[in-house]
Design goal:
CATH class of the largest domain: Mainly Alpha
Largest sheet: none
CATH topology of the largest domain: Hypothetical protein af1432
Distance between the termini: 30 Å
Strand content: under 5%
Number of strands: 0
Shape: globular
CATH architecture of the largest domain: Orthogonal Bundle
Length: 495
């Protein structure tokens, strides 16, 4: 959501302290903690559409929106538009303002529905309870009942959501202007977006909570604040958790759907062909699932651009590998694969990024395998600037990369062998009672096609396509394209 580093951690600390200050049972405190931690986990759900509708940079839209009191219509003019257009030239400023005024309502509805559904789906995949899932479904609801997607209000809203709203806003404005700015921001929104009783409680105990959160080692403090029994992910479930986060990242752009899982499966299979030990192949799978987590820090408009990238855009792209490594390095559990994940764009001749590492001990075989798997998976799927290459054409491209000493010959051979092994998946039954035709529609829907585009591609009427989409949504229990795409990735329906 384009917030400062550790914002969710500090929001979770403040929210947990506020929940305990309200004398909530520890079970409810836990729901508050996890809701605050995961409040932005759906941020990629509508990123593609937001970027397409509002100037290409979903991060800028999110940053401007976080500071805006949308319950006060005048704040759109006072805060959102100035924040969104900051630094833009006159022509771009006019385009952004026009787009925001014309498309703002459509974006708001889409963001609330998609973000909430994806966040709740992530909580379910992380084995968090119904309290957290329902709280995340209500992240865009307001105390006054004028929020979205269901228009809930007052005590009908989940308490963890109401506490998270106050804590998150306070942390954001505390980073901007200190305690006074935080208090002013939450008080201005009381009885609008925010529960006035929680605002009143925050006014009493919040300043100390903000100071403590700002001075703490945020990650360690959150671990210490987690109520018992703490949530522990056993090693056997680690890859499943990693896959959930990898698929959340792949939601950022329709052409990326399923990329992380494809890379992980190729890399693991190639590692096994090279007779790497079980620990190494397990790390390859984990790194493959999480190698692109740094993509969320780059504007969706850059990933979606069909033309050549500018120098500045290329620099943004190069940094995503660095961000992946830094994110993973913060977790003691994932730190062992951080450097491997961050090396997925390195090349044997030193021409890669983000370190420009050359072949040798600094670029071990697992890193070479991951790089080759990433290239093959990308080449064999559509990208904004080109259609997918056939398996033969992709093999030829990788062979050329080895001849020019960019990719490792042995790693490429193992990846190509892994890519060609066995027949494709055979299925007799699709999940949720989907038909063969509905799976076709779901693939197009997940890829960003409108009902009209689906109708053209399948040679059916727009009304028939609309009925298919509505029936799919009903069967899989979602109402947004992003949540449908998450379902498709989770059940391997995109290949």
């Amino acid at each position: 959501m384009s917030q400062p580093p550790e914002e969710s951690l500090r929001s979770a600390l403040v929210a947990t302290g506020l929940a305990r200050g309200l004398d909530l049972p520890e079970g409810e405190v836990a729901d508050v903690l996890y809701t605050a931690l995961l409040q932005h986990v759906g941020c990629t759900a509508f990123a593609h559409e937001t970027a397409a509708l509002l100037g290409g940079d979903d991060r800028a839209v999110n940053a401007a929106g976080a500071k805006t009191n949308f319950a006060d219509p005048t704040d759109m003019l006072r805060t959102f538009l100035p924040e969104l257009t900051s630094g833009a030239d006159a022509f771009r400023r006019l385009r952004l303002i026009t787009a925001a005024m014309v498309r703002g309502s459509k974006i708001g509805q889409g963001v609330s529905r998609a973000n909430c559904e994806v966040a709740a789906a992530m909580a379910e995949r992380l084995a968090l309870g119904a309290g957290v899932q329902s709280s995340l479904l209500q992240l865009f609801e307001w105390w006054n009942g004028e929020g979205a997607p269901r228009g809930l209000g007052g005590d009908d809203m989940a308490l963890p959501t109401r506490i998270t709203h106050v804590a998150s806003l306070a942390v954001l404005f505390h980073q901007v202007g200190g305690v006074d700015a935080a208090l002013q921001a939450v008080r201005r929104r009381a009885s609008g977006c925010l529960d006035p009783a929680i605002v009143e409680a925050f006014a009493r105990i919040g300043p100390d909570l903000l100071t403590e959160a700002a001075e703490a080692d945020a990650a360690a403090a959150v671990m210490a604040a987690e109520p018992n029994p703490v949530q522990i992910v056993p090693h056997r479930r680690l890859a499943g958790v990693a896959r959930a986060f990898g698929e959340m990242v792949d939601l950022k752009c329709p052409h990326l759907h399923g990329h992380s899982t494809a890379v992980a499966e190729l890399a693991q299979a190639a590692g096994e062909r090279l007779r790497l030990d079980e620990a190494a192949t397990g790390e390859l799978r984990l790194a493959g699932l999480l190698h692109d987590i740094g993509r969320v820090g780059v504007a969706s408009g850059v990933w979606d651009k069909p033309a050549a990238l500018s120098a500045g855009e290329r620099e943004q792209v190069a940094l995503h590998a660095y961000h992946s490594e830094r994110i993973l390095a913060r977790s003691p559990t994932l730190a062992p694969v951080a450097e491997l994940a961050g090396a997925h764009h390195e090349r044997c001749d030193g021409s890669g990024y983000h370190r420009g590492t050359r072949a040798g001990t600094a670029l071990p075989m697992p890193a070479r395998v991951l790089a080759a798997a990433d290239v093959y998976a990308a080449m064999t799927h559509d990208r904004p600037h080109r259609a997918a290459l056939s398996a033969d054409a992709a093999s030829g491209q990788l062979a050329m990369e080895t001849r020019e000493h960019r990719l490792d010959h042995e790693a490429v051979g193992a990846v190509l062998a892994a890519a060609g092994q066995g027949p494709g998946r055979l299925r007799r039954d699709w999940p949720a009672g989907l038909t063969d035709r509905q799976v076709e529609v779901l693939r197009l829907l997940a890829g960003g096609s409108s009902n009209r585009q689906i109708a053209r591609q399948l040679v059916v009427s727009p009304r028939t396509a609309e009925h298919h989409v509505a029936d799919i949504y009903t069967k899989i229990g979602v109402t947004s394209r992003a949540a449908a795409a998450m379902f498709a990735m989770r059940h391997d329906l995109l290949t």
